[in-house]
Amino acid sequence: MGNPASYEELSANFDWSVAERELGYRQGGPINIGWMCSDRLCHLGLANKLALHWEDYQGNQKRFTFDDLRVLSNTIAHFLGELGIQPGERVCLFMDRVPELYIGFLGVLKTGAVAQPLFSAFGDESLFVRLQNANTSAIITQKKHLPKVRKIREQLPNLRHIIVVDVGESALQPREVSFHMDQAPRIEDFAVYPTTAESPSVLHYTSGTTGQPKGAQHVHYSIVAQYLTAKWVLDLRPDDIYWCNADPGWVTGTSYGIIGPWSNGITQVVFDSGFNAEHWYQFMEKHRVTVWYSAPTAIRLLMKEGTEIVQRHDLSSLRYLASVGEPLNAEAVLWSQKVFGKPFHDTFWQTETGCIVITNFPGMPVKPGSMGKAFPGITATALNPKTYEPVNQPGIAGLIALRPGWPSQIRGYWNNEAGYKAKFKNGWYLCGDRASIDADGYFWFMGRDDDVINTGGHLVGPFEIESALLGCPSVAESAAVAKPDPVNMEVVKAYVTLKKGFTPSDDLELEIMNRIRKRLSPLAMPQEIEFVDSLPKTRSGKIVRRILRCKEFHEPVGDLSTIMDD
Length: 566
Ligand code: 6R9
Known about the structure:
Helix 2 (17-23) packs across helix 9 (223-233). This protein is of the alpha/beta class. Helices cover 31% and strands 23% of the residues. Strands 2-1-11-10-12-13-14-15-16 form a nine-stranded mixed sheet, sandwiched between helices. Strands 4-3-5-6-7 form a five-stranded parallel sheet, with helices on one face. Strands 17, 18, 20, 21 and 22 form a five-stranded antiparallel sheet that branches. It is built from 19 helices and 27 strands. Ligand 6R9 binds next to helix 10, strand 14, strand 21 and strand 22.
C-alpha cells in the first residue's frame, strides 16, 4: 500500500512518530541506517526479496537480495573494523555507481563511522579540498580513480587507508589495500554499532557562494524523514521497481537512491551509465520500472530526442514520475503527460534538508511549473528579504524558509559553525532560494538568492572555480557566474583578467578550461571564458558577480548603490 490518505488528511493529523513507529524506532534507543536498510527488512520476512538489480553500460548485471545487502554490508563493516576504523571517523566513498558504492554506504554506517560520498567525476583538487576539510581516515575507490587519490595522498597524512575494490594486492602501494566484495569471507553476524538518533551518519559536501564547499552533517535520525517522504511522495508500494537516476555523490542519490527505497523494502534498479535516451528507455522497459525519480535536465534531454523514440518502447509499467534538482518547467510536465500519460511531480529540497520539503503530493492536482506544497509536518513560507517576516501575499516573491526541527535537517556544517548559523534568521531556516506562494498555497520557484550556479541540477560554487582559475599561471583575477543554457538551465562562464605578459587567445581559453575540468570536474568547467581588462568591484574591492550574471541573463542590474557602498 502506498499513501492511503489525501494530502489534507495527512497534513491535519501529522506527526513524525508515524514513521518512528513504522520503522520500529523507540525514542532514546539505537537507530542505525545501515541496519535499518538491510537487517530490519530481513527480520520482516523480505530476506529473499530483490533489493538491487544493477546493470552497467556494457550490459553486465548483478542482483542482490535484502539478505545479500545485510551480509555484504556486514562484510564491508567487518573489513573496516579490522583496519581499525573507529565510530565517528569519516570514510569516503569515491566510486562510480557500482554495487560496492551502495552496499559500502550501509557498511560504513554499520561501523558507526561517517559515510562521505563524493562524485567520482571529481578531479584531484575537488577531492583534496573535501578530504582535507573532513579529515577523512579512509577512502573506498576503484582502480580507475586511484591516480587521483595517489596524486594528493602525500598532502593528506591522516588518510590512513585507500581501499580499492577491483585490483589485486600486487598492484598496490603503501597505505593501499584491496577488498573484493564478492570474494571476501561473508560475515553473517556483525555487531552493528549502536548509533543513536543524533549520531553523525552522512557528510555530503555542498557549494555555497563564499568559501570552499561545506560539509553538510546528517545524523542517523534522518531516516525517519527519508523513509516517510519516499513512501508518501514517491508513492512507493511493495511491488514497485524503483529507479532513481541520481548519483550517490549527491544527496538525491543517497536519501532517495539508498535510504528511502531500501528502508521501505523496495526493489531498486541502478544503471551505471551516462545519459543516452535509447539506453534509458530500454533499461526502463526491460526492468519494468514503475516509479522513476529523475531531474529536469534529463527530462529536457529526453524531450530533445522526441516522442517517436518513446513510442518504440513499452513503458506501460511506469506508474509514478517525480523530479528534483532544478526548476521543472511547465513544458516538461505537459510533455511527460503527453508521452508517458502521466506528469512529472516536482519536488524541492536540498542537501541541508535531507528530505523532500515542498512537493506535488500524490493525488494533489499538479499545477505545471509549480513545486507544489509543503510536505505534511514541514512549515514552509516565503519571507520578506528585509524584515524576514512571511510576505503573506499571494504572488509576491520572498525567501524560501522552513521552521527548523524536521528529522533530516542537517545538524551543522562540518567545522563551520558560523556558516551554519548564517542559515537562520528570525527563527527560520533559509534555503537560499526565492519563490512566491499562490492563493492555494502552491510554491513557484523564482531563482536562487546567491551566486551558486545550478548546472544540470548540480550546484557548483563560484569560489571553488575561481580558486582553481587563480591557480592557472596566466590568470590575475576571475569571476565565475551562471550563463543560461537550454538543456542544463545554467552552465559556468568565467570572466578573467590576465597577468602581464599573457594575451587572450583560443588556445589559452582551452588550456584554462581543460585545467578546470581535470582538477575540479566536467561540471565546474567554464563553457566560455571571456577575457576582460577589469572586473566590476565594490569600493572595498570585492568582485560583484551579480552584474556579470545579469549581463548573461539580459536582466536589469537594479540598484547598485548598496553594492558600491559595501
Ligand atoms: C536535492 C538537491 C539544492 C538546490 C536548491 C535549489 C535547487 C532543488 C528544486 C530546485 C527548483 C526544484 N533545487 N530542487 N530548484 N525546483 N524542484 O538538489 O540538493 O544539490 O543541495 O541542491 O537545488 O536551488 O536550493 P542540492
